[in-house]
């Protein structure tokens, strides 16, 4: 077995370290994970881990130039009344 890790192998960090790197609380990062709004993560055994590359990608993906950009992304077209009746709501 090698003593030195392969540099091509991703570096994994747990929630606490990922939160520290992102300057978030671990609980905030957990809420993002549960809501599907956080960085990509992996479950290894019972542990949640993140790669540094995925943390960087999440940071880059959250770049905005104005507060109205997020509203456009979050807003989804409403269903028409006819469509709502078809599905029984």
Task: Draw up the topology in text.
Elements (H helix, E strand, L loop, with lengths): L11 E3 H8 L3 H10 L6 E3 L2 E5 H10 L5 H8 L6 H6 L3
Antiparallel strand pairs: 1-3, 2-3
Helix pairs in contact: 1-2
Q: How would you summarize this macromolecular structure in one to three sentences?
A:
The protein has 89 residues and is of the alpha+beta class. The chain is built from five helices and three strands.
Account of the 3D structure:
- The protein has about 90 residues and is α+β, with helices and mostly antiparallel strands.
- It contains 5 helices and 3 strands, in the order βααββααα.
- The protein has helices spanning about 15-20, 25-35, 50-60, 65-75, 80-85, and strands at about 10-15, 40-45, 45-50.
- The chain has a 3-stranded antiparallel beta sheet.
- A hairpin with a 2-residue loop joins β2 (about 40-45) and β3.
- α1 (about 15-20) packs across α2 (about 25-35).
- The radius of gyration is 19 Å and the shape is globular.
How can the largest sheet be summarized?
A: 3 strands, antiparallel
* Helical content (DSSP H or I, runs of 4+): 40-55%
> Could you name the ranges where pLDDT drops below 50 across 5 or more consecutive residues?
none
Structural class: alpha+beta
User: What number is the mean pLDDT?
Assistant: 83
N-to-C SSE string, H for helix and E for strand = EHHEEHHH
Total number of β-strand segments?
3
Span between termini: 60 Å
Task: Record the strand order, biggest sheet.
Answer: 1-3-2
Strand content: 5-15%
Shape: globular
Query: Gyration radius, to the nearest Å?
Result: 19 Å
Total count of helical runs of at least 4 residues = 5
